[in-house]
């Protein structure tokens, strides 16, 4: 069985033989280098894609299946959407019984057109833990100055790991601090954010720890997805509570 070439247009490729999970992995890794077979199996277990099965039980994927996987992976990578929201969009796609969306026009949004959770900056890499920025780079890219960075570190709002290097989340924090500073908020005002975040970390860690302790790769993938969804839901809850709290001040 010959694998369809990566450059083959999807419309033409659907007439060709179905693909094995390894062949699908080769297709997706061009755009999503961190995807694994365990990840594909996890997405199947969550009902986001349903490959055909041979009599021997082997998975066989169509190009529509690959398009669904690209949709899911793009929504997670670029817009941090939880699986619940992605599943709703796929259900709508299935109900319309239309062709798979083309990759150039793929947009993942919430049911009302909003984007739940946070949106990653255009220059923010997917795995922020793998980003390594020097101190001067962080200052230059975030808009804060050296003294502010030192104060944030003293308060524990921002940390370097390993010492002297900063990851992608540190850049997000520094940029947010720079934006808040434009409205007059200083680092000392942000200590409560660190305290509240630590409380949430302790709470969420209790939920994902049982999955992390399992040796099954699928369980570890589920732990990562659970953490992602918890973060997205927490952000939505926090934003809604702040909006409600400001209504009286705004006279609404």
UniProtKB/TrEMBL annotation:
Keyword DNA-binding included in the entry's annotation: yes
CDD domains: HTH_MerR-like
GO terms assigned for molecular function: DNA binding; DNA-binding transcription factor activity
PROSITE patterns: HTH_MERR_2
Key words of the record: DNA-binding
Keyword flag Zinc: no
Superkingdom of this protein's organism: Bacteria
InterPro entries the record matches: DNA-bd_dom_put_sf, MerR-type_HTH_dom, MerR_fam
Start and end residues of each HTH merR-type domain: 34-92
Signal peptide start-end: none
A Pfam entry, by short name: MerR_1
SUPFAM superfamilies per UniProt: Putative DNA-binding domain
Cited PANTHER family: HTH MERR-TYPE DOMAIN-CONTAINING PROTEIN, REDOX-CYCLING DRUG-SENSING TRANSCRIPTIONAL ACTIVATOR SOXR
Protein name, per record: MerR family regulatory protein
Species for this entry: Micromonospora haikouensis
